């Protein structure tokens, strides 16, 4: 009986440590990360919602979405996104709002760990009277 309690305490302790680590780093544990895919598959959930690719990432894939997610630019908005590698900026993107369509910046990751950006656009839906 004593041995079972020791094993239970060890398992609970390891589970708590992994849970705290994943919360602290903002990332899911290794087994839950999305697989790397081609660009169309990585952006498929957006395309089903009416988004289309406006600017492809400058770095080759395969890709997966990062926990940082995306930034939306409305008709009067502006966004600047920078992807850094230590102290150096490796990619910078500036977008100004457009009254014709919405824009969405999606942050992606390559297998080498490089972060890159894709821009999607969707026609703005006309508002009712």
UniProtKB/TrEMBL annotation:
Transmembrane regions: 6-22
Species this chain originates from: Gemmata massiliana
Keywords: Membrane, Transmembrane, Transmembrane helix
Region Disordered: start-end pairs: 53-75
Lineage: Bacteria, Pseudomonadati, Planctomycetota, Planctomycetia, Gemmatales
Protein name (Swiss-Prot/TrEMBL): Uncharacterized protein
Taxonomic superkingdom: Bacteria
């Amino acid at each position: 009986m004593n041995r079972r309690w020791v094993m239970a305490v060890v398992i609970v302790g390891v589970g708590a440590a992994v849970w705290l680590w994943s919360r602290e780093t903002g990332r899911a544990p290794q087994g839950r990360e999305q697989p790397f895919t081609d660009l169309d598959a990585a952006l498929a959930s957006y395309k089903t919602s009416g988004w289309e690719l406006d600017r492809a990432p400058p770095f080759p894939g395969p890709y997966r979405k990062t926990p940082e997610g995306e930034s939306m630019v409305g008709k009067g908005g502006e966004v600047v996104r920078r992807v850094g590698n230590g102290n150096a900026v490796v990619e910078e993107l500036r977008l100004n709002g457009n009254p014709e369509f919405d824009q969405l910046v999606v942050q992606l990751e390559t297998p080498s760990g490089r972060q890159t950006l894709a821009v999607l656009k969707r026609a703005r839906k006309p508002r009712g009277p």
